[in-house]
Amino acid sequence: MAPSHALRCCKRVINWVPAVFINLVVGWSYYAYVVELCVYTITSNAERICYLIIFHIALFLFIWAYWKTIWSKPASPSKAFVLPRAEKELYEQEERAQVQQEILKKVAKNLPIYTRTAGGAVRYCDICQVIKPDRCHHCSTCEMCVLKMDHHCPWVNNCVGFSNYKYFVLFLAYASLYCLVICATVVQYFIKFWTEPNTHAKFHILFLFFVAALFFISVVSLLSYHLWLVGKNRTTIEAFRAPVFANGPDKNGFSLGFSRNVAEVFGDQAKHWFFPVFSALGDGHSFVTRLVHIDPEQANSDTFPSPAASSRSRVNPCSVGGGRSQKHPQATYDALYKQRRRRSRPPLSFHAPGRASNQLFLLRRAVHPSSLPCHIDRGCTAGVQTAPV
Ligand SMILES: [Zn+2]
Ligand SMILES: [Zn+2]
C-alpha cells in the first residue's frame, strides 16, 4: 500500500471520530433516559408512557435529520461547467494567467455565473477543473467542489451545502428539541438527587441532565445563527466573505426578501418544511439575485470592475436598463420567480449534463436589464432596496 494511500485512509477514519462520538452520546442518552429514568426511577405508569412517547418522537426526528445530513452526497457542478476539450487543452498549454482568464471568460459567457473572485477573475477550480457556479466552493476535506457550500461540518463528517442544508438546519432544530425534552422531564429527578439522597435517581440521571443542558445551549446558539442566515439567504462562507458581483462585493446579493429566502432552503410547500426530505428550490447551479439586471455577457466582459473601482462607481441599475426597465410591471419578477419554483428539481438531477443549468440560464437571459423593474435592485435609489416579498 502506497504511503499516501495509507495516510488518506487514516485521515478518513479519523474524520469519522466526531460523528461516532455523537452517536455514542446519543446511544448512552437513550439508555440513561429509557432504562435508568423511565424503568428504574419513575413509578407512575401514566408518566412513564407519556415521557417515552414524547422522547421517542423527538429522538426519531433528530436521528432522521442527522443521518440524512451525514449520508447526503454533496452536490457537485454539472458537466456544463467543465471546460470543453479544446479550451481545456488551450488552458493547460497556456502559461500566461491573463490569457487563461480570457479562455475562462469565453466559456463562462455561456454559463449562468454572476460572481467573481475578489480580483474580478472567473472562479475556476484547478483541482476539479471546473468553472465554479455561483456560491460553489472547493472543500479540501471532501476533495471536491460543492454547490452552495455552507461549511464542512466535522460533527456529520460531510459538507453542508445545497443537497443537505435543510437537513442540517432541521438536525439542529430537532437536536435542540431532543435536549429540551430530556432537560424538561429529567429536571425534577435531578433536583431530587440533591435533596433526597435515598431517591432512585442515579448518577446517569445527574449526568444526563448536565450533558443535555450543555448540548442544548450550544446547539440552540448554532441553530439561531443558521436561522438568521436562512432569513438572509446567506451561507456561512458568504457571511464571512461577501460574494463579489459586477458592482463589487455584496453580502445581500442573493437576498430576495425573508419569505423567499426561507423558501429557497425549505421549499414553498409547508407540508415539507418540518421533515428532512429534499424541497429546496432551484438546482444549486444558478441563483436568482437582486442584481439579475446584469447580463451574463456584460458580467463576463473585460469591463468587470475590480472591487476598488466598483466602490468608487456603483452600477446604476436604472441606467443599465436604459430606462426601459421602468416600463415593465412588478409582476415580471414574480412570474420569473414562480417559473424558477416550477423548475425546482431534486438533487438527483445535479449531474444531468447541463440541462437544468441551461434552463436557468435561459431564465437569466429572460431577466435582461430591459425586463426588470428597477426597484428590485440594490443600487436603485428611487425605489425599494430589496426584492418584493
Ligand atoms: Zn474543486
Ligand atoms: Zn467537505
Automatic annotation (TrEMBL):
**Where along the sequence do coiled-coil regions lie?**
none
Main EC class of this protein? transferase
Q: What topology in the membrane does the UniProt record assign?
A: Multi-pass membrane protein
Q: Which domain of life is it from?
A: Eukaryota
- According to the UniProt record, where is the region Disordered? 300-331
Does Heme appear among the keywords? Answer: no
Transmembrane parts of this sequence: 20-42, 49-67, 167-191, 203-228
Cellular-component GO terms for this entry: membrane
The record's keywords, sorted A to Z, are: Acyltransferase, Membrane, Transferase, Transmembrane, Transmembrane helix
Q: What InterPro entries does the record point to?
A: Palmitoyltrfase_DHHC, PFA4/ZDH16/20/ERF2-like
E.C. number(s) listed in UniProt:
2.3.1.225
Q: Which reaction does it catalyse?
A: L-cysteinyl-[protein] + hexadecanoyl-CoA = S-hexadecanoyl-L-cysteinyl-[protein] + CoA
Major site of localization recorded for this protein: membrane
Q: Which GO terms describe its molecular function?
A: protein-cysteine S-palmitoyltransferase activity
Domain (Palmitoyltransferase DHHC): give its ranges: 123-240
What is its subcellular localisation? Membrane
Stretches of Polar residues bias are at 300-316
Q: Which family does it belong to?
A: Belongs to the DHHC palmitoyltransferase family.
Q: What is known of its domains?
A: The DHHC domain is required for palmitoyltransferase activity.
| Name of this protein | Palmitoyltransferase
Species in which this protein is naturally found: Salarias fasciatus (Jewelled blenny)
